[in-house]
Amino acid sequence: MSRFHSTLSRRDFMRGIGLASVGLGTLSSVTPRFTDLDEIISDEKANYKQPWWVREQDQGVTEVDWDKKQTFNQAQYDNRVAHLRPSPLDDEYRTLPGTFVSELYYSNMKTFIQENKPGFSLRDRGIYWGWASPMIKDVLGYRRAGGIGSGSGESFTGYDFLDLVDTPESIGVPRWEGTPEENSRMLRSALKLMGASTVGFVEINDNNKKLVFTGSSLVGKPVVWEDTENIYQTNEKQVIPNKCKWAVVYTIRQPLETTKRGPSWISDGAVGIAYDQCDIVQYRLQAFLKCIGYQAVGGNIFGLGPLPAWGELSGLGEVGRLQNLITPEFGPLIRESKFNLIDLPVAPTKPVNFGAQRFCHTCLKCADACPGNALQKNREPSWDITPKYDEYVKPELFNSPGHKTWYFDHFKCRKFWEESASFCGVCQGTCVFSKEKLQSIHEFVKPVIGQTSLFNSFFYNMDRAFGYGLHSEDIENWWDMNLPTFNIDYSEKPYI
Ligand code: SF4
Ligand code: SF4
């Protein structure tokens, strides 16, 4: 049974949507009779697909004479070669071997870039190259089928398809040059088009360099820094050029309604699709930077380093008890705060404090809900990693000491994944900050949490009373919800 039955009366609901002042008596004559939200949701009219001004009719608006209509074999289709030979246009317009376009296209492309034509500059060309990423999906699909896993080693240098990307050298123009501030603005705009929601920047120093992994369990060779021009890898190592002195960090959103219907394969779908988005956005960034004369070191599914930490360093959120990044906009409903090391100078963004971690001190909602008992329930964070609790588990293999937090037990978490045949995600779906901005009074609550911890317990209790969080008992109704594309409301405006 849905939680709405017990938490909201019809009167409360009407008041909530601002209709109470009209008078419920008056409303009764013009509105359908519902006793609670579940009835509203299950009514067939709640499932409407089009606005009222879109009429349904029996035939399409285009008239068709079905007697004259013939089938068409697309194999005979030609919009180029068959019309060129013989013709004066032949050489200029014919597709160049191994490409999709003609000599004319290439010569115009170079001219437009050299002339800095609006919409056709070098950096605009970098945006264009985002289109090639569907091709890496084939590669990913192939590699996954081969059991190698998302990204594997190839994401580090950026997949073979980057060879197709135009470069300043191939076009015959100088590479893009901008101030760090201009470059930050440019990357933020590019990444948002590519699929990222929020974007931050970090300048690499001796301290945060320790948050770049020195190897990857997926790739099985060391990651080292060298004085070299280009990112490269051999059978022995993966090499980050020392000139990659900046990190660009970006969030990929994960949908609320789908995530909180877990643990299930539906919530797993939300996770997997968000991971795919991470791969796609990363590839697009690598292509973009290559086109304007720079480079980005790519990470596989585990990332180039602990991703929540980079999210915090770049000001995209705070690491919470659940050991994910809690963002001001979307809470922990992201996968991931992905980062890439780049050699394009950018202006760093500062870390933020909006009271999330402080809220975690008195809120244990995720830890209480964790079916694997993997999250810490201590009120205060600690410098101590997960204590050794039996002779087999080796916490030093999954916890990296040196920061004060609620270290979590990755083994217990993973054990539950096996038991439940799912990737769980209950902590994400449960977190008090896992809300959509327009959904609730949360936009009022967040500024208060950001200023004082006085009301944290009150807000925690309210959150429970309102029945927010997991909807494990409503998993099946996801199929009838008609959610937005990617199940995400992208009309919400990020703060950054
Ligand atoms: S994914 Fe599940 S088992 Fe793992 S920490 Fe989160 S709630 Fe616990
Ligand atoms: S559920 Fe509560 S304790 Fe857990 S991460 Fe969210 S705010 Fe922190």
What report would you give on this structure?
- It is found in: Cell membrane.
- Its cofactor is corrinoid.
- This is Reductive dehalogenase.
- It holds the Pfam family Fer4_16.
- The chain is an alpha+beta fold.
- The protein has 2 domains: 4-42, no CATH class; 121-496, no CATH class.
- 35% of the residues lie in helices and 8% in strands.
- The chain has a 4-stranded antiparallel beta sheet, sandwiched between helices. The protein has a 3-stranded mixed beta sheet with strand order 2-4-3, with no helix packed on it. A two-stranded antiparallel sheet has the order 7-8.
- Strand 7 and strand 8 (325-326) form a beta hairpin.
- Helix 8 (122-128) packs antiparallel against helix 14 (265-292) and helix 9 (133-145) crosses helix 14.
- The radius of gyration is 27 Å and the shape is globular.
- One iron/sulfur cluster (SF4) binds next to helix 18 and helix 19.
